[in-house]
Amino acid sequence: MITFLIFTAACLGIVFYFFGKKQALKIKSSTGSLHSLPKYYGYYASLWFLLPSILIIICYLLFAESFITNNLINSLPIEVQSLPDNELVLILNDIKNLAVGNILNSESFLSINEAAQFYNNQYVVLNQVVFYSSLILGLFTFLYAFRSITANFRARNKIENIIYVFLFSSASVAIFATAGILLSVLFEAIRFFEIINFSDFLFGLTWSPQIAIREGQVGSSGLFGAVPLFLGTILISLIALILAVPIGLMTAIYLSEYAHPKIRSITKPMLEILSGIPTVVYGFFAAVTLAPFIRETGDLLGLSIASESALGVGLVMGIMIIPLVSSLSDDVISAVPQAMREGSYGLGATKSETIKKVILPAALPGIVGGILLAASRAIGETMIVVMAAGLSARLSFNPIDAVTTVTVQIVTLLTGDQEFDSPKTLAAFALGLTLFIFTLFLNFIALRVVRKYREQYE
Length: 458
Prior knowledge:
Layout lengths: L1 H30 L6 H38 L2 H4 L3 H16 L11 H37 L6 H41 L2 H6 L3 E5 L9 E4 L2 H32 L2 H16 L2 H22 L9 H25 L3 H9 L4 H30 L2 H6 L17 H8 L9 H35 L1
Helix pairs in contact: 1-2, 1-5, 2-5, 2-6, 4-5, 6-16, 8-11, 8-13, 9-11, 10-11, 11-13, 12-13, 13-16, 15-16
């Protein structure tokens, strides 16, 4: 029904656009003057018709399910309503699955078929109300807009104001989304730090988040020292950057300064294919191919290399972020004004001297920003390290040892049924907050570098 409503509203919006435009042309032919172009009057009339439909559809998507679920609960027998929340949720799932045909029958309670029919009827009634109310309200708002069309009506200004509000709202989404993510993590992290001392978490050397269920239980120490996780994250990210930064930067220099246009047109898209490969594929490659190869090579050299070593994970992660470094660096180097190159050549500098003394210093802000962005990507990567890194927290900075990372532990702590009053589960939010602050710090450094050197070269 909602899809049909969207299609109907879009078609009528196009029709009412031509009505508004035709009315504007009629006024122009009779008065000889019109403040705005006729198309703006059409846009104005069409938008006034579409606005109620958009608002009603948004409200429907946000609140319809909860509204119908509440009505469904109120219609259930008293003995079902009085069940514990977890049992009531299971019964509601059975009713909804029965209503949509995912299951053929259920014996949750005697009148479950009537409840499923009630659920479907509620949706039918609500869909009809939404459909007709949006069209009727849209018709009234269109008539208001249509009557507003006069020779002196500033339709262009109105449309530009609407576009401004839309653009401002779009820009605000990122701010509110970031604030929402931060607050949702922050509140749970505060609950964790009310139980576990902050200094023990930040500077502790042992990570063992298992909490004893009964007194004297073995192997449930409940130690939350996050230093081993930080070291593992830094080690793997450092290995990735050591691989990705030189290769990515050299690739960018070659493509922008040395490569023939035909070679560039082939090489750059092939390189950027790497950025489109799902990270789970990189994880398979690290776990199945590269890690065994590194271990067997170490055996030949007499080295005991762990199957889930930081070296294997870091190398695969470095391959993944090479396109990020090379693409950003290539764009920045290509944006350096050609006049700077020609001036350097005019003074007798060679191509390599021009690259080292002129182009790279001028492009340094963007290059540093790209590297720090790649570092943030490496630090926050989840799937590769979950599939190929270790799970046990080891206080080691040796690349051939098995280490774990912050993201691996977050996934481990939040997998399965969890009790959000337990420090073990709340520790995931503390780790997420730490990761968020660290990546925010990297972005802050990138902005400072860009601003400092941009003033020097502009």
